[in-house]
Please model this.
Amino acid sequence: MGVIYIGDRRAGKTHLAMESSNPRGYYVKGSEQIYQNLKALLYDKAEGKTLATEARQSTYRRTLDLQVRTRLRYKHILVDWFDTTGEIWRDSWQSNNPQEWNNFLEVARGSEAVILILPPHRDLISLTSSVDPEIDEDPGPFPTLKQWCNRFDEWVKFFRQDFLKPKHLLICLNKADLFCDLKQEAEKLAYNPDSYAMDWLDRHQYVYNRYFTPIRDRIKQIDAVITGLSVRCFITSVKERSLLELPWLYLANYLEEI
Ligand SMILES: Nc1nc2c(ncn2[C@@H]2O[C@H](COP(=O)(O)OP(=O)(O)OP(=O)(O)O)[C@@H](O)[C@H]2O)c(=O)[nH]1
Ligand SMILES: [Mg+2]
Model:
């Protein structure tokens, strides 16, 4: 059973998945040993950030061992987490590494779920005054709204052309700490197995209407080309555990227990 993370360079794929495996979670708990191993391998302690995933391979297979609280009980799931490098989306990389690109497609096609990680665009970031300059000091890497929308057209094209038909496609607008009131949104969206206040469709619609407005029509196009698929939108941040857990809590309803 596999889940593949895709997205451009620096979107936050590695950091987000690695943090999901932190044993100190609310309703998603990883194994201490795996978390420490992943951290030793992928995290630069001195710099306080994850290392860029090397472009020598398209996909890196790692294991996540998670206890996830579904409505009735904890479910124990063992997942193959396929990390990818954002480099593979460059045309030059694809033409220089045809074999690796095919490997990626094969792995992606065999994965139960695809998690697409998007960076925020600059208009979103400038809406908040609470941005911590320590976090991502250079706003340069963030795309303008126009670039962000154009880039999403490429994602639509990819899902159309490459006949990648995942059962689940989760789109995470990451680095939410840079564009929203984290605490407020976390309180609103947080999972609570004992409450029926918000279900998964409610969460999706709230996020979709609030943060994905400029690309809503494009998301509908993906929904339309992949029959049987429901795209679900999330906002995520490595700084807010309850938001970071949501994609896994959603997926746990479909992933098989070991
Ligand atoms: N502020 C903030 N920074 C984040 C978040 N998630 C990741 N980062 C930082 O963004 C940078 C890139 O994150 P990575 O997880 O390495 O990005 P990636 O998508 O794996 O990038 P490649 O491996 O190069 O394709 C790192 O400095 C992370 O620590 C987040 O939620 N908020
Ligand atoms: Mg990475």
Notes: The chain has one domain: 2-251. The chain is about 40% helix and 20% strand.
